[in-house]
Amino acid sequence: MTPKVQSLLRFRCTGCGNCCKEPLLPLTASDVKRIAKRTGDKPVDFIRWVDRNGIDMDDEPEGFVQLRQGKRVMVLRHYKGGCYYLGKDNRCTIYTSRPLGCRIFPFDATFHKDGKMRHLKLIQAADCKYELDGKNEVDEIRELDRRTEEANDHWHDQIADWNREQQKRKRSGRAAGTAREFFDFLGLG
């Protein structure tokens, strides 16, 4: 392992909350189900739909859902300058049920087929006041990466199924479905 990777593995969150204030976090259906189960909130309460201008996901076109108003990405809503679930103390109020994207943040790792870490960088999506005196395990990052990839693959399959159905609707002269219909399609209605 390179010295740079060893240094980044010492990342420690200082609890500034900036990562919960600035970037938008795309959600998967499993994230939404977990949050709704934990909080009792309806998805429409904590989800916001953004278009291509609202989020940089050019490298992930499979994350866009075709809705009546156009292609959109489902993200965690912001409220009063931060994530809908960010407490006044800058702590997550749904920490044990938080989205997988929050769990792996700020690590962006790639692994060889044999499981060894090939590359590690810290995502710079927010002004993060981190320290490098912590301890993170490669095995934990690998497992979070695996779970995130698996959830994203399943999510993209669900989006593809929905988008194919919307194309059929359009060909038959009907409008694409609404966000509520999409939630029903996912069993989140």
Sequence-ordered SSE layout with sheet pairings:
Layout: H1 3-8, H2 29-39, H3 43-46, E1 47-50, E2 65-67, E3 70-76, E4 78-79, E5 82-83, H4 100-104, E6 107-111, E7 117-122, H5 138-171, H6 179-186
What do these coordinates show?
The protein is of the alpha+beta class. Helices cover 36% and strands 15% of the residues. It has one domain. The protein has helices at 3-8, 29-39, 43-46, 100-104, 138-171, 179-186; strands at 47-50, 65-67, 70-76, 78-79, 82-83, 107-111, 117-122. The strands form 3 sheets. It has a 3-stranded antiparallel beta sheet. Strands 4-5 form a two-stranded antiparallel ribbon. Strand 2 (65-67) and strand 3 form a beta hairpin. The longest helix has 34 residues, at 138-171. It is globular, with a radius of gyration of 18 Å. The mean pLDDT is 93.
- Write out the strand line-up for the largest beta sheet, numbering strands in chain order: 1-3-2
Radius of gyration: 18 Å
The H-and-E topology, N to C, reads as: HHHEEEEEHEEHH
Shape: globular
| Average pLDDT figure | 93
Q: How many beta-strand elements?
A: 7
Structure described in brief:
This protein is α+β, with helices and mostly antiparallel strands and 189 residues long. It has 6 helices and 7 strands; from the N terminus they run αααβββββαββαα. A 3-stranded antiparallel β-sheet has the order 1-3-2. The protein has a two-stranded antiparallel ribbon with strand order 4-5.
Q: What attributes does this structure have?
A:
189 residues; 7 strands; 36% helix; alpha+beta; single chain; globular; 3-stranded antiparallel sheet; two-stranded antiparallel sheet
